[in-house]
């Protein structure tokens, strides 16, 4: 089945701009023409492709064609770069056009190792970094919103490839004053953990819950502080708001923090998933990310079980 590129462009514009009117302006056609092109796609596929709400939303079937539209656009840009040898629209080779590349990334990778990995490519690729919890970044890839994602999901999204990068290790940390006040000198007991305040990134963050469950503590018991920024999250722990699981990579700048449970680290495996497209920007980014991950993350062969603790509950 072949799809009219003008119809695909109308679908993409409607979803990305949020309204048929805005899509019409971006395509220099009328809103009626946008609607007709989307309707033609729906008749061709026999599926409802968009929910005509404000903003317009793609259905599950619509997401498939939305991804196709974006992939076709990426391939077209790649062809233009090859034909123009990277020249800008005016032919001025001193000002090459940066190729856009939307990536879904988790906050802790962004705050630690990822930006350094992408820096050498910043002169040729225009990165659009979409921050989301690592358990949810694959959904953005599935929707076609991004071309690649760092995710905890090992199974490749349809039309994508998946590579295990390694594991980010997290340790339960707190300020020295908080430890003395709440726990004393020993590994915290389950009873103490059940009432001690916890710093949590946001409501999608389940790392602290996993640690509490490993210690036999109901995660619903302790009070939570929600701090949705990697740097501010660590600052809240340093300032004594509560304890929390901090990426091992961030601890190099925070040697004043105290490890509550040296045997209680959690390893979170991270995967690189990307569209199965042969484009230079995507290939170069994937290689850079894989190389940086091999140096920064725990090696895949050394991954431990999701939770291991030297302490016994109680």
UniProtKB/TrEMBL annotation:
Q: Does the keyword Transcription apply?
A: yes
Instruction: Report the domain of life of the source organism.
Output: Bacteria
What are the protein's UniProt keywords?
Activator, DNA-binding, Transcription, Transcription regulation
Q: Which PROSITE patterns match?
A: HTH_LYSR
- A Pfam family found in this protein is HTH_1
Q: Where is the signal peptide?
A: none
List each copy of the HTH lysR-type domain by range: 3-59
Instruction: Give the PANTHER family listed for this entry.
Output: HTH-TYPE TRANSCRIPTIONAL REGULATOR ARGP, TRANSCRIPTIONAL REGULATOR
NCBIfam families to which the protein is assigned, alphabetical:
argP, PRK03635.1
Family assignment from sequence similarity: Belongs to the LysR transcriptional regulatory family.
Protein name listed in UniProt: LysR family transcriptional regulator ArgP
Q: Give the species.
A: Herbiconiux moechotypicola
């Amino acid at each position: 089945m072949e799809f009219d590129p003008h119809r695909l462009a109308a679908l993409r514009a409607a979803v990305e701009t949020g309204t048929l009117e805005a899509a019409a302006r971006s395509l220099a056609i009328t809103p009626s023409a946008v609607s007709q092109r989307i309707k033609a796609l729906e008749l061709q596929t026999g599926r409802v492709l968009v929910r005509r709400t404000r903003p317009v939303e793609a259905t599950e079937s619509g997401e498939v064609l939305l991804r196709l539209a974006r992939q076709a656009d990426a391939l077209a840009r790649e062809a233009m770069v090859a034909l123009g040898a990277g020249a800008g629209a005016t032919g001025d080779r001193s000002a090459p056009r940066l190729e856009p590349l939307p990536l879904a990334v988790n906050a802790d990778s962004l705050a630690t190792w990822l930006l350094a990995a992408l820096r050498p490519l910043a002169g040729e690729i225009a990165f659009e970094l979409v921050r989301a919890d690592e358990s949810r970044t694959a959904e953005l890839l599935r929707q076609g919103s991004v071309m690649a994602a760092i995710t905890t999901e090992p199974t490749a999204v349809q039309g994508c490839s998946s590579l295990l990068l390694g594991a980010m290790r997290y340790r339960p940390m707190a300020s020295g004053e908080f430890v003395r006040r709440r726990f004393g000198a020993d590994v915290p007991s389950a009873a103490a953990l059940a009432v001690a305040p916890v710093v949590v990134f946001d409501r999608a963050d389940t790392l602290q819950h996993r640690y509490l469950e490993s210690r036999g503590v109901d995660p619903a018991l302790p009070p939570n502080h929600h701090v949705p920024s990697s740097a501010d999250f660590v600052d809240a722990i340093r300032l004594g708001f509560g304890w929390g699981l901090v990426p091992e990579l961030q601890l190099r700048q925070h040697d004043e923090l105290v490890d509550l449970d040296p045997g209680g680290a959690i390893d979170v495996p991270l995967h690189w998933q990307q569209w199965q497209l042969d484009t230079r920007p995507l290939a170069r980014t994937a290689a850079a990310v894989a190389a940086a991950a091999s140096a920064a993350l725990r090696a895949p062969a050394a991954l431990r079980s999701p939770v291991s603790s030297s302490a016994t509950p109680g």
